[in-house]
UniProtKB/TrEMBL annotation:
Keywords: Cell membrane, Membrane, Transmembrane, Transmembrane helix
InterPro entries attached to this UniProt entry: ABC/ECF_trnsptr_transmembrane, Cobalt_transport_CbiQ, ECF_CbiQ
Transmembrane segments: 24-57, 69-90, 110-133, 230-248
Keyword Membrane included in the entry's annotation: yes
Protein name: Cobalt/nickel transport system permease protein
UniProt-annotated location(s): Cell membrane
Amino acid sequence: MQGLAVDDAAWASPWRTRAVGDKAALSLGLVLCALLLPPWPGALIVTVVALGAAVGAARTPLRPVLRALTAPAAFIALGAVSVAVTVTATPDWSVGVTADSARRALEVSGHAIAGTSAVLLLAVTTPMIDILAGLRRLRVPPACIDVAAVMYRFLFVLLSSVRTIRQSQTARLGYSSPRRSLHSAGLLTAAVLIKSWDRASRLEAGLAGREFGDAVSADPVDRQRSSPTFLGAVVVVLGAVVALSLLGHRA
């Protein structure tokens, strides 16, 4: 069974041997910067630093990073359109884009892209099993960790179902024409939804029939000690991001 590109990148990342807390400090710090700093130039600086750390410092291949950003970017674009388009009822009904709505759409998009890039930095450097083990050490309720682990595994089941059904449709020339492609896509969606519902019901029954908290075992790599040098570098980087953002905003 093939895995997610982000998950594969995380397992192969040179930063996997670093403590989860160190990487989380950098990622969450950048998320806070993306939320609190002015969108210009704060969002741009956070995005550059996050992607630069993922591709440069952590040596993650650029292709999976860009692929992982594609879907969030599409949702962000749709959200930006809904913010930019305004509807007025007085004195007459009108639909349009104003300078203020366009500015707000750009600001929201900047915050969203910066925050997504910061979270992606943690995703491409830390496997999910390490994150769950770290949450267990933070005394997060075992039931929450158990549900998260089951949902994580469910993703691979879902992707495997989609891949198998699509290969079968392709072998039967289901995508040989636009009309057949549309028909096959509808059948694929229906089949995956039914399989997902059935699988989710069985997973729910399995959770209800056993004790919580034993879904994931801690990996020895996750117990790596925190690095004071790395944390010091994180503080310096976050401080530089804040300073450059505020100076650029005032200028």
